[in-house]
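call fold(seq) -> tokens
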Amino acid sequence: MKLAIAFPGQASQQVGMGHDFFAEYPVVQDLFHQADEVLGYPLSRIIFEGPEEELTLTANAQPAILTVSYAAWKVLEAFIPERAALTMAGHSLGEYSALVASGAMDFTDAVRIVHHRGKYMQEAVPVGQGKMAAVIGLPLEKIEEVLASLDLGGEVAQLANINSPDQIAISGSAAGIDMAAKPMQDAGAKRFLELKVSAPFHSSLMVPAADMLRPELDKVKFSVPRWPVIANLTASEYPAGVAEYPGLLYRQIFSPVRWVESAQNMAARQPEGIIEVGPGKVLKMLNARICREIPCSGVGDMNSFKAMLAYLSGETGFPS
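ret:
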């Protein structure tokens, strides 16, 4: 059996996520307790009870999504055949989930790191001074042409998330993104949609956050992954040399997420399906647009888990 496993990034959080797994599986309960202990505050209460405004804070959302995603993986992993050939990837924050699931990084180290990652990313640019926007219906090459043609005068507007062939996010200073709006529409974009985010993620404005996180990344003990993990930065497998891992995660913070190429890399291995493991359905929808020849599904709650379990036991086909 060959499967591709994809882990979601920030904005997939929702109050109550993971509670059905928590109620039934001791391994999930243990993971939530570990996360609370590492952080020194009740992340699990925030996940299960909210309020939404507190869960959405970047420093909480990142460890929360990681914890729920890894918990869903631990439940699912027990039913995947031992000799299954897997490939893993994660969107931005989700790359940490993939590294933990593959055995390349300890869960408690990852929880601590992504909490600080979120905190530093939020602190790097004062609220209101940065923006992100989704450019809908304009090819990547055209977006790059428009960005290169802008006279930004010191402002910033850069590629951030190459999510699908027809949905690409740009990021930068508030004025820089505003300056890009009309040229993108003039070039043929169907929509130019400002995103409700708290910082200009995956732009050069995040370099201060990356610089603050780098010493902490350098202290992490990484291992060679059990299964291949596709890096956001390169859209290629993590190398055998673990000394390169801190640098990949450092540069990921201020570089574009190359999700289209990452999903294509997974699809090229001809898996039976691509499974988004974690809250939400963002990657399931993106993957379906990128890899039309590969079935795409998700495991984020008990109902979707049971549907996947029926497939893994041979009772049904790959769930939609």
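The first helix runs from residue 19 to 24.
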